[in-house]
């Protein structure tokens, strides 16, 4: 079974530029998550989709971050404009349904963003 | 709040047991999890425990939960070099467990 795919794996941009990340979840998984992991910290949930609807985006900085999951499969996360403090690894995860009991979240390898 | 704290580093000798500790502040947590993150890789779920349990064993892994003290631990028996990684505890809350919070991570180094 193919895992969660993310691209690009690495991205370096200058502050105030825009950037987009792409995630392809495991086939059949209804729920998709985007996390931000700053160096030395645990992942922080940015947004959670179930199918193409948003379940939780309470920690998403909506003035500069946006995400969509058109058609309920792939998802893109965009930062516009980027700030230095956005440097982090952006992790995508998917699960069959909502994250309870055995509904395991499967993580992709992440996209490492460096903002100069 | 959603503060989940862990000690940053742990070193053990190969063959010894490792104990990784985690404290959390929100007593409404539904489930508590342990994830493993190897360099350059995503997080891998190791095990989880429901908040009304106090212990769970899964092969070399033993999870202990002290709900009164809001303390969670992961014991790895017979630690191997392949166990070297960062270990995160995480809690989920909410009626459907969809609020998910990770700890700061503990870097485990296994010395041959």
Give the gist of this structure.
The complex is a heterodimer of chains A (116) and B (112). Helices cover 0% and strands 47% of the residues of chain A.
Main sheet specs of chain A: 7 strands, mixed
Helix-strand sequence of chain B: EEEEEEEEEEE
Strand content of chain A: over 45%
Radius of gyration of chain B: 13 Å
Largest interface: A-B, 26 and 24 residues
Span from first to last CA of chain A? 37 Å
Note the overall shape of chain B.
globular
Number of DSSP helical runs of chain A? 0
Counting H and I runs of at least 4 residues, what is the number of helices of chain B?
0
Please explain how this structure is put together:
The complex is a heterodimer of chains A (about 120) and B (about 110). With about 120 residues, chain A is mainly beta. Chain A has strands at about 5, 10-15, 20-25, 30-35, 45-50, 55, 65-70, 75-80, 90-95, 105, 110-115. In chain A, strands 2, 4, 5, 6, 9, 10 and 11 form a seven-stranded mixed beta sheet that branches. In chain A, strands 1-3-8-7 form a four-stranded antiparallel beta sheet, with no helix packed on it. The radius of gyration of chain A is 13 Å and the shape is globular. The model of chain A has no long low-confidence stretch (mean pLDDT about 90). In chain B, strands 2, 4, 5, 9, 10 and 11 form a six-stranded mixed beta sheet that branches. A five-stranded antiparallel beta sheet of chain B has the order 1-3-8-7-6, with no helix packed on it. Chain B contains no helices and eleven strands. The radius of gyration of chain B is 13 Å and the shape is globular. The interface of A and B includes residues 43, 56, 104 and 106 of A.
Set down the secondary structure blueprint:
The complex is a heterodimer of chains A (116) and B (112).
Chain A: E1 5-7, E2 10-13, E3 19-24, E4 31-37, E5 44-50, E6 53-56, E7 65-68, E8 75-79, E9 88-95, E10 106-107, E11 111-115
Parallel strand pairs in A: 2-11
Antiparallel strand pairs in A: 1-3, 3-8, 4-5, 4-9, 5-6, 7-8, 9-10, 9-11
Chain B: E1 4-6, E2 9-13, E3 18-24, E4 31-37, E5 43-50, E6 55-58, E7 61-66, E8 71-76, E9 85-93, E10 99-102, E11 106-111
Parallel strand pairs in B: 2-11
Antiparallel strand pairs in B: 1-3, 3-8, 4-5, 4-9, 6-7, 7-8, 9-10, 9-11
